[in-house]
Amino acid sequence: MKEEVINQELDKDQWKLEAQAIINDVKQHVMDIKVSEKLQNSNQFFYLNLITLENLKFCIELSNAGFTIVGNEHDNISNRGDDQFETLYSLLNFVSPQYRYSFGNSLIDKLKQLNDF
């Protein structure tokens, strides 16, 4: 289910697995990303604290509607944006040019490795 919009409510263990899968997918292309330990996570949504490669901080909500930036500081949901993103990849592509560069280089490296076989 990773990187897909959650179309159903997740139980407590499922949302933790979902969050970890999402974090593992992008962690090499950001400075830091982790589940908020201060905000209340539930089986309907959870919050991620993100620092981009540009050193920009965000609090991101993941719900059945997708990924939404809800704050410009960690553990802060006072600045909900209007933009919703189907994946964390698309959100990062929107806010972080360095993410695009890092992700693109990662793909090139993987293609080179395949070509070497």
From TrEMBL:
Residues 16-114 form the GSKIP domain. Transmembrane segments: none annotated. One of its GO terms (cellular component) is cytoplasm. It holds the Pfam family GSKIP_dom. One of its GO terms (biological process) is regulation of canonical Wnt signaling pathway. GO terms for molecular function: kinase regulator activity; protein kinase A binding. Gene3D superfamilies: Hypothetical protein (hspc210). InterPro entries: GSKIP (IPR037395), GSKIP_dom (IPR007967), GSKIP_dom_sf (IPR023231). Belongs to the GSKIP family. This is GSK3-beta interaction protein. It comes from Apis cerana cerana.
